[in-house]
Amino acid sequence: MGIVRPHLWFDDQAEQAAEHYVSVLPRSEVTKVVRAPAGVPGVPEGQAFVVEAVLDGQPVTLMNGGPTFRLDEAFSFVVECQDQDEVDRYWDALLAGGESRHGAAGSRTGSASPGRSCRSRSTGSCSGRTPTAAPGRWPP
After folding, report:
1. Which end of the chain is less congested by CB atoms within 10 angstroms, N or C?
2. What ranges in the chain are assigned the alpha helix state H?
3. Whole-angstrom Cα distance, residue 88 to residue 34?
4. Which one is predicted more confidently, 44 or 124?
């Protein structure tokens, strides 16, 4: 495993986002939750501060850091799928409680998917739509 990993900044939804992602993606788990001690700016004592997770084998860090930065369409996860049915299954699961704008799945966790299309792991191509991304919101 490499030493580079995605690091996602949330206002106060990092733990919920991690739980949502691991409920949808295979080979995924929350591996560690560090609770905020007293005195962390913008994070109440005892709230999840840093959440470590593995999403389909990829280590990811999620952090509650307050509203200074927000996730938007500049960030997305790419999920390789075998066919359009698998794309649609992930789309629906990741969108659960979120919204769809401009053809992108804005999840309830605040991140967006760039569109409902797929690239087959076996053939390298698959039919589907490729619209632009739009941010989502948490909670729904």
Report:
1. N
2. 14-24, 84-95
3. 34
4. 44
